[in-house]
Every structure is written in structure tokens, then in C-alpha cells.
């Protein structure tokens, strides 16, 4: 039988990465193999993000490039999914007639059947129906699936918070949690296919299970912590208003829980936080940070910021900079405010002008870079345990001695810092090099976004079977 190929492009957050994995798994059952070549593909799928206008533009510019491919190969199936698809529905097909399929954020489990229908009947399908029940896949992770040592698992979908700027509640629907048994079973199967670290995903993981009366999020973490073979647990995203004392305590209790938390604050100004409908003050946020540091003194912190929210004054922005100085985050993600359709803030007055937004963003990044480098410099000389994610690719094409000896590798510390390091000699592991192993690396150099660990002596490698005697 002739092989069939699937090309999938993912834009956006980790949840989209996870959804694309589900799509790949579902289509593998129909005999589709992954390809990195669009020309070779029988099905091209685009998984889109609507969080900011820029992400949406990226989707449309990718789609624009597909018209020609379809002309050359009329049997090619082109599908668009994710948040932009959910928002636009039929409009998408009218705008780009070469699209065969539009599938929303709640339709992923129906995708294999839709693709089959399109291939057999050459029809066009739009499925943006939203449901209350969360969909569970009946496609298990296969033991041969190699998605690397660090994997994502969505534990809940949607959001009920309705922050004034955010499109998520409209494109992902109301908050719904998966059953703990299904989550645990999925993680167990990921571990049996090589995963060593999982990141539990939800828009607001702190409210996991509340609506449905399932277990609490910290209880779920306890169950995941007990999974044999799993080395590390991360989660994202937490909402500062909902992070409970109980969850804070888990940092002192669960040995697999990584010492890092991503706690988006968005702004350091109480006036802006109020208009954003975040439902906490900067003082409450700072209290939570303090409580976390009390339980876990070496916990690394990261956050999200929006600059130039409607009505954000110079003083409001100074409050944001001040909060960054107080917390001293290990890293931040910051974005220029972008109007999103149907969100309350899209019609808020006093829009901040684009140049001003860009200047504020640069100021914020400059301040954070200084802090990040200072915090990373403190680590020089320390030996940190790194979960190896894989071999890093040579950037410049030249053969450095590090690459020639045992390769250059990349991984993360428990605090989520990227560490690159070289090995003194080639590993002779039976599988995929040293990916998935814990390695003790002594830090030699600090950069704003990563650390360099120098040459690692094989004797310090956990899992000595990686080396011939
Ligand atoms: N404009 C800019 N940034 C936004 N985010 C969410 N909505 C918007 C918007 N309309 C940012 C927030 C959120 C992150 C995922 O994206 O900081 O935490
Ligand atoms: Fe959007 Fe707020 Fe929900 Fe996060 S908590 S997804 S920012 S509405």
C-alpha cells in the first residue's frame, strides 16, 4: 500500500503542541506518517493561535503559501484547526477557498473521521462545535512513539476567568477538567515510551477538578509523583488569585516537583490589574511569592507581562518595573497589548500608541536581562542536575572539539534553566544517546537565557551504562 504523509505546522502555546501530538496519533491509525516536506504531504494541517494579532497573522501568511501547492496537487487535503479556526469557522473557507477542513478546539478527536470523509467524498468540512464534556482520545500512546524525554499533558481545557484582554475563554470554552485516572494512565504510557518529565497543562491549573468535584490539583500532583520511572513534574499555568496554601505546600512535599513556578502577573499596577479583571493586587501577588520562597527557598520564578494595556500610564508602567525589581524573576515573557475580537478591552478607551508600547517593552526586557544574567552568574561554579533533552545542533557548521569528542548536549535544571554542555567522550547508550538521563553539570559560564556547563566527566553521569569501560 502506498504510504500517506501528514505535515503539521503548530503555532502557539504548549497546549497546541499537545493537541498536534493527539492529531498525529489519531492520523497514524489511518496510516499517515509524519513528513517534514510540504510537497510530499497528502494532508497539511495548521494548528493556529489567536492570543495576539501577530500569531493570527502568522497563520494567514502560512495559509497563503498553500494555494500554489493545492493548484499543483488538487488531491492535497488542507485543514486549519486551533483557536483562529474556532473563532473564524466558515469564514476561513470563504477567505481561502483551497481549505478543505476547519476544525475547532473541541473537535480534535473527530479529526480522523473528518479526514477520511474528505478523502473519500472530496467534500469540505467545518466543525467548530463546542461541547461541555471533555473529549478523551481512544488512541493510546504507543511504546514506539519517541517524543523525547520531556512531554506535555493537558489536564484541563478552557478558562472561566475572562481577563479583559484574553480571547481564550471564547476560543477554548469553559473550564473543564479531565479525570485523574485518564491523566495518570496517559502519563504512565508516556513514561513507557521514554518520557522522564511531564508538564501538566491548563489555563488555570489551580482550579483543576473543582467544578467537577474531582480531586484537587495538589492531590493530582501527588498521584503523578507516584508514577514509577517519571523523574520530574512541571505545571503551567497558575493564576495568582487561585494558588492555594495547599499547592504551595506541595513544593516541600513532592520530590519530583521541579523548583520552578510560572506565575503570570501581567502588570505591577493595581489600577491596571483591576481593569484587566485579574482579581488580585500587587501586594497579594508579592505575598504569594514570599510564601513560595518560604517553603522552597531556591524556587525559580517566571512570569508573563502585558505592556501598554489601554489606559496604562507612565506611573503604572513604573509600578511594573518596580515589581520586577522586587521579585527578581529568573525569566519573563512580555508582550505588547493587542486588541482581540470580542474581548472587553478591545473597546476600552485610551489605547497606548505602538511606539510607546515598543519602548516600554524594550525597557522591561533590558531590566529583566540584567536580573537574569545576575541570577545566572551566581550559579557559575555550582554543580546542577540536568535532565538531558537531546543533542544540540551545531549553529555555525564548524566542528568544535566539543562536538568531535562526545557531542554537545542540552537540558534543563529543576529550576527550568537551559544548560548546554559537552561530553568528554561519545556515549555508547543502547538508545538515543544520553537524552532522558540526569547528569551533574558544573556551570562555567552564564548568559541571560542559558548556562554553559563545560565538559562533563563520564564518571559523574547517572546511568553509567552510557559508557564503555
Ligand atoms: N495582548 C497581549 N498579550 C496577551 N496575552 C494574552 N492576551 C493578550 C493580548 N490581548 C499574554 C498574557 C498571557 C500570555 C499567554 O499571553 O501575558 O499570560
Ligand atoms: Fe486568559 Fe486570564 Fe484565562 Fe489566562 S486566566 S487564559 S489570561 S482569561
Outline of this structure?
The chain is of the alpha/beta class and 469 residues long.
Your description of this structure?
The chain has 469 residues and is of the alpha/beta class. It is 33% helix and 21% strand. A 6-stranded parallel beta sheet has the order 2-1-3-4-5-6, with helices on both faces. A 6-stranded mixed beta sheet has the order 18-15-16-17-20-19. The chain has a 3-stranded parallel beta sheet with strand order 7-10-11. A hairpin with a 4-residue loop joins β19 and β20. α13 packs parallel to α14. The longest helix has 24 residues. The structure holds 5'-deoxyadenosine and iron/sulfur cluster. The site of 5'-deoxyadenosine has 12 residues, from β13.
